[in-house]
């Protein structure tokens, strides 16, 4: 038995010494990128700034080259001096297939709540102005509706007058909200969109509309600041839009106040006619008081209406002089990309000479 055990031990040592060493599994070597795996995006005009937004982001001067990992839906924007900043959605399939433009659904997206389409297209200032106006107007409608319902069934004169005032205010704010909603819809229709010029498995050519003075002015005629936004002067466009919306909201508030004072004046005149000898002086004082308030309220309302009109006209005049030649092209030389692919995370900084 001892001899057999020793023999087994010697055999085990001999086998372990003669066994081939175990090697770690090496990762597969990635296939080299060929010309057929590269998608080149070119623009008209040449050397425009092209930006892609999707699961990854990329920006740089045309022509822009994409590796095989750039697959899926991307929003493409094109900016160049003298051209309107344009945007469009494209789908980039696996290499060997041509990319194609996705349906814009312009009219469907125009029905979104005010400001949402502008926010989705990265026009934050314009989107926030429309969103604030739409939300404020809708909130005023809801508030006045509940106030009206809480007082409409009461029989005393004061509650009836207040119910009528809230009904009047509700209808005015509903009109304001509808106008803001319409402005947001038209604003979405008016913004520039990328035009696909050519699409092959290795090349995508896109274009943007050329700016003209007429295209800027008539947009500002339809929506304040839309022409300036179309001409890439987005801060100016936001100021004209925000000023018009704010002045319009102030006018409606003054109109609501004037209507309420007018109702109180009418009620005071009725009470004066029915007043007894001991009440005439007090009723006359009430009529004089509300008459003075009504005159001041009307002046304020007229001034705010004039202010709104002046802002709108000034917006149109500004559209006639806003620069449309474009800005600096220095930023086009620098781009940052962060393509994400299976096993190939990377960040790249590009500088074009």
Entry keywords:
single chain, 353 residues, alpha+beta, Immunoglobulin-like, 2 domains, 9 helices, 11 strands, elongated, disordered N terminus, disordered C terminus
Major β-sheet strand ordering: 3-2-5-6-7
Q: Indicate the percent of residues in helices.
A: 40-55%
Overall shape: it is elongated
Order of helices and strands: HEEEEEEEHHHHEEHHHHEE
Number-wise, the strands total 11
Strand residue percentage: 15-25%
Q: Ends: how far apart?
A: 85 Å
Largest sheet data: 5 strands, antiparallel
**Secondary-structure class:** alpha+beta
Average residue pLDDT? 84
Unreliable spans are 1-8, 10-25, 27-31, 327-353
What's the structural domain tally?
A: 2
Computed Rg: 34 Å
Number of helices: 9
